[in-house]
Design goal:
With 199 residues, this protein is α+β, with helices and mostly antiparallel strands. It contains seven helices and five strands; from the N terminus they run βαβββαααβααα.
């Protein structure tokens, strides 16, 4: 098994990638989505208004089907509340619940590295989610890895080499779960930094 992973600046691109993975026959149980929606759920999201508040994991209503119907609210140290579903979300939430204060970096990095993602990439993905991005992962047989990656890339994924360079230019080196989560205004500013210019 391999893990195909894509970071997206736009939630709708990530949602599209999840739908395309499901249509390609990748089981919903093998797909995950973790999205930092900036402390709110956008009106154009299928996730709806039902995200529960509380101790960490809540219930959310209605995706279009498959994985997206299971969206819930998870709190990740250093990232804050995220809308999430799938094996990665469950693994990260379990690691957070069982972690000793000051321990593993919020569970997300450990969940990613345990699934075969390099530690450097896991830090980049966690930081991308912290800054308002959406992470989609799919566990696939080796023979389907290229297909899954092509689906993610074709859904407008982030070029991780370029994004790492941009983060490094800002002084970033690694995800730090002890930092405060980005505020909605900071997330919007970060999203605007990477949006293509309107012509």
């Amino acid at each position: 098994m391999r893990t195909a992973t894509g970071l997206f600046d736009d939630y709708s691109d990530a949602r599209s990638a999840v739908n395309k993975l499901e249509v390609a026959g990748i089981p919903s149980d093998d797909i995950s989505i973790v999205s930092n929606k900036g402390g709110h759920i956008d009106s154009d999201s299928d996730a709806g208004e039902g995200a529960a508040t509380g101790a960490g994991i809540g219930a959310a209503v209605g995706g279009a089907g498959g994985l997206l119907t299971g969206l819930g609210l998870v709190a990740i140290p250093g990232v804050g509340p995220v809308v999430a579903a799938g094996w990665l979300a469950a693994t990260a939430a379990g690691a957070v619940a069982g972690a000793v204060a000051g321990g593993a970096a919020g569970g997300l990095i450990g969940a990613l590295t345990d699934s075969g993602v390099s530690e450097d990439d896991a830090h980049l993905y966690a930081e991308g989610v912290r800054r308002g991005g959406t992470l989609v992962t799919a566990k696939v047989e080796d023979a389907r890895a290229s297909e899954a990656e092509a689906i993610l890339q074709g859904s407008n994924w982030v070029d991780t080499v370029e994004r790492r360079r941009a983060y490094n230019e800002q002084g970033w080196t690694r995800f730090d779960a002890t930092l405060d989560p980005y505020a909605p205004e900071q997330i919007e500013q970060e999203r605007n930094r990477y949006r293509p210019p309107v012509i």
